[in-house]
Design brief:
alpha+beta; 2 strands; elongated; disordered N terminus
Length: 77
């Protein structure tokens, strides 16, 4: 399924398909997270978790646009 959601660069191409990226590195004895993840720190690996966001109850169909609010406008005679 990984390749189904990802293009060759590892980034989804469809607007509904997204991913969460988790960057990681091995912990060094006695160092805090803030000390390890400084501006020039390099991660040792990355894990991408695929996600597809869909609205419940829409059967994966686009939601129709809302009608214009004409309540406060005068109608021509």
């Amino acid at each position: 399924m990984w390749n189904h959601f990802q293009n060759s660069n590892g980034v989804p191409t469809d607007g509904k398909k997204h991913y969460f990226a988790v960057y990681f590195m091995n912990a060094l004895e006695g160092k805090t997270v803030k000390e390890m993840w400084h501006k020039t720190a390099k991660h040792e690996g990355i894990c991408r978790i695929n996600a597809i966001f869909e609205k419940v109850g829409t059967d994966n169909q686009p939601i129709p646009p809302k009608p214009a609010d004409d309540a406060g406008k005068e109608k021509p005679a």
